[in-house]
Amino acid sequence: MAWPEFEARVKGGDTPVFMPIGSHEQHGLHLPLNTDCLVPTAFAERAAKEVGGVVVPTFVYGYKSQQKSGGGQHVPGTLSLDGATTIGQIKDIIKELARNGARRFVMMNGHYENQAYMVEAIDLALRELRWEGIRDARFVATNYWDFIDKPTIERIYPDGFLGAELEHAGVMETSMMLVLHPSLVRMDRVEDHKPASFPPYDVYPIKGELTPRQGSLSSPRKATKEKGEILLDVCTKGIVGAVRKELAKG
Ligand SMILES: [Zn+2]
C-alpha cells in the first residue's frame, strides 16, 4: 500500500496491526530457511482479513536457535540476532507504528526462541510510550502453536505428542507448509528418524551431535496437507477470537 492507504488504516488507532516475527533458521532437509516467517505471515494475513487488520512486513530474523527447540546455531543456514537486537528491532517498529497512530497490536510469533524477546519488546515499548504520554496501546501476543487444543492434538498425533519444542521441522510445521507453500516442501528428502533426546540441563558450547543429523527434532514423515488444514483452521480461529476479545473498539 502507499502512504495514504496506510494513514487511512492506521491513524485513529482502531485497526489491529499484525506484526509477524520469524527467523532465518534451518528447518530440516525438506523445509526452507524462512519457514518461521512464512507460517506466522500466513496466520497474520488470514486473521487480519477476518478482523479488518493490517499486516506489517515480517521480521525475517529472530533470536538464536536453541538446540532443544530449533536444533542450534551450528546448523548451516541459521542466521540469528543477539537478544538485544531482537528486542530493539521489534520495540522500534512498535514505537514507529504508535507514532503513526496505531494502538492495537497483534504480535504473531513464529519462532519458539523469540518468545521472551517479543515480550520484553512489548514491555519496553509500553514503558517508553507512557513517557511520551501514550497510555492506550494494547497488545495481544501470540505463538500460534498455543492455540492447538487437546482434541486437535489427538487428531494430528494419534501416536502421542512430543511437545511443541520437538515439533521443529516436524509434523506440525511441515503439514502447514504443505498447504501454504507446497512447492517449497521437499517431501522426497524426508527421512524418518527418532525424536531428539536431550538431558534436562544445558551445556555450552553445545554438543552439536545431540541434534539429529537431519536438523528436524522429530520426524516429519507423517505430515499431510489434511493435518495442515486442521492446524491452520484451529489456530486462525483462536487468533481471531483473541483479537476480537482483547482488542475490540471502545
Ligand atoms: Zn520453525
Mean pLDDT over the residues: 97
Q: What percent strand?
A: 5-15%
Instruction: Give start-end ranges of low-pLDDT stretches.
Output: none
Specify the structural class: alpha/beta
Q: Topology as H/E string?
A: HEHEHHEHEHHH
Portion of residues within helices = 40-55%
Shape: globular
Radius of gyration: 18 Å
Which hetero compounds are present in the coordinates?
zinc ion
Largest sheet: number of strands, sense, barrel closure: 4 strands, parallel
If strands are numbered along the chain, what order do they take across the biggest sheet? Answer: 2-1-3-4
Determine the number of helices (DSSP H or I, runs of at least 4 residues).
8
Q: Report how far apart the termini are.
A: 27 Å
In terms of quaternary structure, the protein is single chain
Number of strands: 4
Please explain how this structure is put together.
It is built from eight helices and four strands. It is α/β, with parallel strands linked by helices and 250 residues long. Helix 2 (35-51) packs across helix 7 (171-180), helix 4 packs across helix 5 (115-131) and helix 7 (171-180) crosses helix 8. The site of zinc ion has 5 residues, from helix 2.
Labels describing this entry:
250 residues, 8 helices, binds zinc ion, 4 strands, alpha/beta
Brief overview:
The chain is α/β, with parallel strands linked by helices.
Task: Please outline the helices and strands.
Blueprint: H1 3-10, E1 16-21, H2 35-51, E2 54-55, H3 67-70, H4 83-99, E3 104-109, H5 115-131, E4 138-143, H6 150-156, H7 171-180, H8 225-246
Parallel strand pairs: 1-2, 1-3, 3-4
The chain binds zinc ion.
Zinc ion binds next to helix 2.
